[in-house]
Design a protein that fits this description.
By secondary structure, the chain is of the alpha/beta class. The chain has one domain: Gcn5-related N-acetyltransferase (GNAT) (Aminopeptidase, 3-Layer(aba) Sandwich). It has 3 helices and 6 strands; from the N terminus they run ββββαβαβα. The protein has a 6-stranded mixed β-sheet. The chain is globular and about 40 Å long.
Length: 110
Amino acid sequence: MNDQDQHEVTVRDNPDESRFDVFVEDTHAGLSAYKDLGETQRVFYHTVVFDEFGGRGLAGTLTRTALSTSIQAGHRIVAVCPYVKKWLATHHDFDDATDPVGREHLRALR
């Protein structure tokens, strides 16, 4: 394990910006943006880990935490973001809390 693998990684909800942020130590390393529809659905539409933090598994950590936190808060997940959609395809423990993408979700993101 090298030095950069030992840095503390944290994920925090940032509801004022409608996103989850991932940090390495105190440095912002990426985000997962969402839009809430009604009181039950949370549409994840964009996930990014900044280039200098690539290859560390941060996108997976960010996604797992963002989805778990959202579900615990009573939201159902709608994955418009290609990364979140791909991640959910291999993490079936989230199947019961996801809804398919519909026209209304895409319209809401315009």
